[in-house]
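<given_protein>
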Amino acid sequence: MEITKPIALPSGCALLKIRIWFYTLAWVHLVFTAIVSLSVDMSEDKDPRVSAYINIRWKLITCWFNMIALAYFPICLYCDWKERRGMWHVQRVASIRQLKDYVMTSILFPTTMFADLMFWRIWHKDLSLIAPPRIFTYLPYWAQHSLHTVSMLIMLLDLLLVPRRRPNNLTPGICLMMAFMLTYMAMCGISFLNGEVVYSVFQIFDSFKLLLLALMVILECLFFYLVQWCIVDLVWSPQSKNEKKLKAQ
């Protein structure tokens, strides 16, 4: 698999210090949101469709990418701390940094952007497509923004704050993204066959509409995967060119 070579920054660079604070706050926010969200107990609700969410919530796409983010932010902190200490080129640090960038660009960014934007589109149209509307009364409104707005903004800021280069071949990243999404879809399908409805839309749409929905999900994730590299080119290409000029001199 091809990994993009990151752009090195001076150990005292202000951007590096900003990133350390950024990842610290992002991780603290996510931990706090997780504690608040997961402490909610709906298992005693009289509606069995609502009480079932005590287990179903672990299968929501929001839970999946936030669990990955819970591990991603500390790894980012580790890499940036090492970089600040001048250990950028240490093999272990370089390998971890490349792996976490691969996870970010192939899984976290496209799935978070897709899921959060989809959530708010459905929120303002018909909540019953996601879950029984009563389920949303268990979480305060601010928690919905923490789970579905702040997460999206954090991914965008990550893209703007971390120097990256577009890989020569996008296929490996697309394959990883597809593998993640197909695994998630398979889990949802198996759960549905076992009588556990992860999203209410599975009971509302017929097979043809569900197939179209799956295709739309894949295309939207692919769209966000490609868009991120356009942003990377726009933000970081000038610095990459400057580095090449300095090396040539």
Observations:
- Residues 93 and 186 are 34 Å apart (CA to CA).
- The radius of gyration is 20 Å.
- Residues 207-248 form the longest helix (42 residues).
- Residues 244-249 have pLDDT under 50 and may be disordered.
